[in-house]
Amino acid sequence: MGRPRVARLDRERIAEAALELVDRDGDFRMPDLARHLNVQVSSIYHHAKGRAAVVELVRHRVVREIDGSAFERLPWDEAFSEWARSYRAAFSRHPTAIRLLATETVRDPGSLSVYHAAAAGLRDAGFPDDHIMAVITAAENFLLGAALDAAAPEVMIEADSTTADDALTRALAAAPRGPARAEQAFELGLAALLAGFRNLLQERGAVQR
């Protein structure tokens, strides 16, 4: 009998396996990843030079679902809204990866394309160069929180109030339940962000005039 066939190791398979561990544990160790792949650690290093490189493979696997193409065909605020929605959706599918990816430097060209599209769209809209990364980072801070909220329990706050007229009790009673709670908060937050960014752009235009 011949030897049992083993799936060929490549960067895609490494990324998928590492993301499986991150989805389960929130992080990964190289020896654990090697065991998960049924290979030696040295075999992984043939395709990714160290743990940081594997993290970048994981990032690329997550962010490749973020769509920045709308900046090429829509007004900047509509494009930014589409970009933001796809960003939140991508990370809400892998909420335990957020801490890992948010604390590692982005270097992979595939991952950087997410930022290239947004930066180019904002610059074309008239945002000054010294504000573009602040706009993107402010949006990311909100979107990553929104992705975590999408994976949160349906009931996040249970008030122990002695009176039904308590402001928090009334607010909780009036709020949507289940997934609609996170959706309402996301839509409100995104609208507020875009309103603030539009104001920033208008102020920039007023200064230039």
Describe this structure in words.
This protein has 209 residues and is mainly α. The chain has 2 domains: 63 residues, Homeodomain-like (Arc Repressor Mutant, subunit A, Orthogonal Bundle); 144 residues, Tetracycline Repressor, domain 2, CATH 1.10.357.10. Helix 7 packs across helix 8. It starts with 10 loop residues before the first helix and ends with a helix. Pfam families: TetR_C_1.
Summarize the structure.
Helices cover 67% and strands 0% of the residues.
How would a textbook summarize the main sheet? Answer: none
CATH fold field value of the largest domain? Tetracycline Repressor, domain 2
Query: How do the SSEs run, as a string of H and E?
Result: HHHHHHHHHH
Rg, Cα atoms, Å: 21 Å
Quickly name the level 1 CATH class of the largest domain: Mainly Alpha
Strand percent estimate: under 5%
| Integer count of domains | 2
* Residues in helix, %: 55-70%
Question: Structural class given helices, strands, pairing?
Answer: mainly alpha
- What shape does the CA trace take? flat
- Count of helical stretches: 10
> If classified by CATH, what would the architecture of the largest domain be?
Orthogonal Bundle
In total, the number of strands is 0
Averaging pLDDT over every residue, what do you get? 90
Indicate the low-confidence ranges by residue numbers.
Answer: none
Annotated CATH homologous superfamily of the largest domain? Tetracycline Repressor, domain 2
Distance between the termini: 81 Å
